[in-house]
Design goal:
Blueprint (H helix, E strand, L loop, with lengths): L3 E8 L5 E9 L2 H149 L3 H49 L10 E5 L4 H7 L4 H10 L2 E3 L6 E5 L3 H17 L4 H29 L7 H9 L4 E2 L2 E2 H18 L4 H10 L14 H11 L4 H8 L10 H15 L6 H18 L4 E7 L4 E6 L6 H18 L7 E6 L9
Parallel strand pairs: 9-10
Antiparallel strand pairs: 1-2, 3-5, 4-5, 6-7, 8-9
Helix pairs in contact: 2-8, 4-6, 5-6, 6-7, 8-9, 8-12, 9-11, 9-12, 10-11
Length: about 550
Amino acid sequence: MLSRVRPVLWPDAEGVETNEKEIPMFNGFDYIVLICSAFALFAGGCLLGWLGSGRTRNSRLRSTQATADQIVARARQEAEVLKKNALLEARDEWHSERAPLEKEQETQRRALRDLAAKLLEREQQLERKIDLLTSKEREQLKNEQDLDRREAAITTAETQTQDLVREQSRRLEELAGLSQQEARRILVNQLEKGARQVAARKVREIKDTAIATANLEAKEIITRAIQRFAGELTVESTLSVLPIPFDDMKGRIIGRDGRNIRSFEMITGVEVIVDDTPNMVMLSGFDPLRREVARHTLKTLIRDGRIHPGRIEEVYDKTRSTVEEMIRESGSKAAFDLGIHDLTEPLLEILGKLRFRTSYGQNLLVHSKEVGFLAGMMAEMLDLDVALARRAGLLHDIGKAQDFELGNDLAQSSTVLARKCGESPEIVQIIETHSKPMPSRSAIAVLVEAANEISTHRPGARKEKVEEYIRRLHHIEELAADYVGVNQAFALQNGKEVRVLVNSGVVDDTYAEQLADEITSKLEQQLEYPGQLRVCIIREMRAESYAR
């Protein structure tokens, strides 16, 4: 209950306390009553709220259940539709896969029926064959029995015949007065004598026919080989002509006071001839290999334009390597032209050197190729080994590729080289028996000899004077180089001059004059030549140093 009221001033709108109001005052009991009332109101509100929420919850539950039932119904409808669609798709797929399977099964059943029919037919054939074999076996047994009876009858007849023959032989021996062995010996002697006479007549006829036709056939074979091979005549000269772009180049080749041409001749051993002939110079030398190196050296110097003694020596060293490669290529080309592809590298190099060797003025590499071609053609006509004939013809003069040595057996040198390079025994034997009429020579060796004669003795193929001239110049160089301190010796001017290059550390000025006299005396004793032979000793002093 209210106990008292306290006046309170309330401010107005302007913040001035104008009105006074009374605020009721409460005691402790009033508070308890108020609390209890509030609690009762709260409990009532909770109860009312719980009852209201239950109704709401139940209504929501009912709506959720209805929604769920609708969803389940729709899901069942959709499941039924999906089920029907799946059943339709499965039925379609089953039908689509069943058709090929049924077709395959029908094919297999048809194949099995055909196989069964074939097996049945095969079985019937086998039965017929068995019946046929059985009948043949019965016939075979019957034939064997007949043969046994015939064999017995024949054996009896043979025995009776032998008895009759013996009886007739005994009666003939009694009538003739000769035994069976004596009569057989007399008959054999008569037959042997008659056979010998017939054989002797046949042998004489065959020999006469062979003699009459052998020469004609041989000439025909050789003529055909020569006609099939049209080789060119190749004659080497001792001069090489080198064209130059303009005449002023001759002055560069000669050099100041002739130092370039002297250095060139001293290094290469080939004489340079510079005359009034326009746009050309000539190189003179009897050795084709030395002349070829000099030609390439001078050609390189002319193309380069720099000509002086140091450059000449440098280019000469490089050119020698180039010419060595050219030698190897020449040997390979010659072997390739003849269809030979298995020659060893050393043999190809030796074969290539034949390009710069001559025999009686004939180039030896060209000559060897001609012999190989001709021997192969003749072997082909005679049904012999063509490859063997070509190989032997190409290598028959391989020993001439070495440096000239007087008194050396060229056939023996060729044999040693062929055996050293791994050639077959047949090739070695053919080379060894070349130009030697030995009874053990093979037919290929005879063909190689014939081809060699054809190549060397046809008109214009050989010039013996050139060969003798080259041998004489080689002999001059060998005699001049056979002294201590001599590095090289070159025969120039057609053998009228010998230039001897000596080692300045071994030969001094005094000994140089003595050496010239000794070489001159030796040449006078061992050579015969018209006119004079000049001996020139060249002693060059070189000083070299390298800056680092």
